[in-house]
Design goal:
Blueprint (H helix, E strand, L loop, with lengths): L6 H9 L5 E7 L5 E7 H8 L3 E4 L26 E6 L5 E2 L6 E9 L11 H14 L2 E14 L3 H6 L17 H4 L3 H13 L4 E6 L5 E6 L2 E2 H21 L3 E3 L13 E9 L18 H12 L1 H8 L21 E3 L6 E4 L7 E4 L8 H17 L25 H9 L2 H7 L1 H19 L4 H7 L4
Parallel strand pairs: 1-6, 13-14
Antiparallel strand pairs: 1-2, 3-4, 4-6, 5-6, 7-9, 7-10, 7-11, 7-12, 8-9, 12-15, 14-15
Helix pairs in contact: 3-10, 6-7, 8-10, 9-10, 9-11, 10-12, 11-13, 12-13
Protein name: Glutamine synthetase family protein
Cofactor: Mg(2+)
Family: Belongs to the glutamine synthetase family.
Amino acid sequence: MAGNFSFDQLKKAVSNGEIDTVLACIVDMQGRLAGKRFLAQYFVDSAHDETHGCNYLLAADIDMEPVPGYKAASWSKGYGDFVMKPDLATLRRIPWLEKTALVICDVLDHHTHDDLPHSPRAILKKQVKRLSERGYIGYFASELEFYLFNETYDSARKKHWQGLDTASPYIGDYQIGITTKEEGVMRRLRNEMEAAGIPIENSKGEWGPGQEEINVRYAEALDMADRHVILKNGAKEIAESEGKAISFMSKYNYGLAGNSSHIHNSLWSADGKTPLFFDEKANWTLSTLGQQWAAGQLKYAKEFTWFLAPYINSYKRFQAGTFAPTKIMWSEDNRTAGFRLCGEGTKGIRMECRIGGADLNPYLAFAALIAAGLAGIDEKLELQKPFVGDAYQASRLPEIPKTLRDATETLAKSKMLKQALGEDVLEHYVHTAKWEQFEYDRRITDWELHRGFERY
């Protein structure tokens, strides 16, 4: 919950004219910031306590279409308000926007002022509380990948997203020379995120022309999710101010690498000082607790894949030989694996889930990984031996669901997630997944037109 700006500092900055706008933001189901731009003085005087928004914001699709069939919000219920409660601990300056601060809000029931159960931030907070009750802190880090284009969003739209000019013409994975061409955006992104209280470790070229990866320092799960969504929003805003465009689509081009969001996760003691996964005498130096946590994530991976891959396009990324996983297994430092053990032999030992794409909602993804890890601990699961070799070529390993339809079916049947998240919450997101499939199934794609307009 750590921002870099106290409420007292905000009041002072408002009074001396340094800040004139405060963004009060919730996180929607798609992992986007939604909310209001407040005149800063009004926020300081009144709105810092609470404001309100239409509850359709957590019952709409990515096109902002109010989706029928949700229990939580509907036309028959009148699409009333929910409370947006600023978490003042998340206050931060936004250097890339003039005289602007931002705060993340919790979403509360309008009548009871309790957390709205299906709010993404509330879902993660519930799982963080489950960790806390056991004396654990979950540390997470999500690595975001994206493509940077020498295009604006307007020019890309006019080209129908075809033949786009990437910031570099060829793959520059780890290459310093070629990524220097991209520094106009990337240097600003690193430095201005740091100034916004989001500590950046590094950026690098990735395995696609103009593709980037940016790494944020690990943090407690809720802090990391907040950092993740602010970074994504800010990256687009910074790029647009430079006349560029950024895409976090899992797979924007069939012939190029997809965009992942690998998620590193481990448990530490309640005071944050003792790593609970490190045991130098254990197999792989991974403690019994760590092995059970990992075993739970492996056991339930099919059930929570939707939380890591929520769109039709997400499943286009799972292709052999592309550094995206296709199989559910774990390995020691093996990038063909769905789960990879990192930091073996050190206090930083952790599991890396490589299934998620850059289009995921981090609150939902982290919550699912925590729920599965805790299930592994409760069931005292035994971790299988690590896979060795090329997982793409291993025919007997369990596969990641191949389509949104497959992932939705396993999500709907998950007793573990129903128990961990709540039946109504699970039903809410199953409905979301089914709507996304329904919308796709009734649309005509460019591929269909190209293939069949003349030849059928």
